[in-house]
């Protein structure tokens, strides 16, 4: 299975928590939105380690996807690291991890709304 990982932005902790509760209520599968207090490779890997358990994904491939994102997007990472620092301690770096099929399905569902 092929996965995609990307950093989406910075959000206050409570907004992210509320969003996560909405996603759980919708029984969405195949797409995980993750939060991290730090913008480091270790923190991002740590944030994805629980997703494979819920989604039955291959952990090694998920971690490889995060590492490949980190290596190939240094400018974006610098940008989001600075935005997270500017936002303060009560904010999270928000990222998305998904398998391609589920992400495509989610986008199609959004366009239908």
Provide a compact summary of the structure.
The protein has 6 helices and 3 strands, in the order E-H-E-H-H-H-H-E-H. By secondary structure, it is α+β, with helices and mostly antiparallel strands.
How does this structure look, described?
The model has no long low-confidence stretch (mean pLDDT 88). Helices cover 59% and strands 22% of the residues. The chain is of the alpha+beta class and 113 residues long. It has helices spanning 13-25, 41-48, 51-55, 59-72, 74-87, 100-112, and strands at residues 3-12, 31-36, 91-99. A three-stranded antiparallel beta sheet has the order 1-3-2, with helices on both faces.
Spell out the blueprint of helices and strands.
Layout (H helix, E strand, L loop, with lengths): L2 E10 H13 L5 E6 L4 H8 L2 H5 L3 H14 L1 H14 L3 E9 H13 L1
Antiparallel strand pairs: 1-3, 2-3
Tally of contiguous helical segments: 6
Question: How can the largest sheet be summarized?
Answer: 3 strands, antiparallel
Strand arrangement across the biggest beta sheet: 1-3-2
Terminal residue distance: 28 Å
Question: Which descriptors apply to this entry?
Answer:
113 residues, 6 helices
């Amino acid at each position: 299975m092929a996965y995609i990982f990307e950093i989406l932005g910075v959000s206050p902790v409570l907004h992210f928590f509320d969003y996560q509760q909405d996603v759980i209520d919708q029984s969405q599968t195949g797409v995980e939105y993750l939060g991290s207090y730090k913008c480091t490779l270790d923190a991002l890997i740590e944030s994805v380690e629980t997703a494979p358990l819920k989604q039955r994904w291959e952990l090694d491939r998920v971690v490889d996807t995060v590492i490949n994102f980190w290596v190939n997007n240094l400018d974006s990472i610098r940008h989001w690291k600075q935005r997270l620092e500017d936002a303060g301690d009560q904010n999270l770096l928000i990222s998305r991890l998904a398998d391609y099929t589920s992400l495509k399905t989610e986008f199609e569902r959004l366009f239908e709304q």
